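Extended Data, record Flagellar motor protein MotB
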Amino acid sequence: MQNRLVILILGTFFSFSAAAQNEKVFITDKVSDTYAYVDVMKTYERVAAKGYKSVDLFQKLGDSSYSHFKLEKAAEWYDKLFAMTADLEPVYYYRYAESLRFICENEKADAILEKLKTKGTVKKKV
């Protein structure tokens, strides 16, 4: 009699725990469906369109556009960045020049590369 009672209790316990795990998975699926992916770059672009200007904002927008091979947009953001300040890391000079070359503004790209050379921090690409 005791064996049957123990088996009954254990069976009941394991069936509840198995059903609870399935419910947790179901709840997790519901929650993940309600959350949406937020595109940060679109948010930054909206902020810039509203007139907010900062070096950090233009660096992020330019870097994102450059890394996604949207070089026309990258040139636009780097142009705004260089209009605000010229005290930037050499990588920004290089990326700006490459973006300008992509949109066939070679003279302006050469001028940016000359500024980079005067900084004295040019490293040759292998």
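Summary. The CA atoms of residues 43 and 49 lie 10 Å apart.
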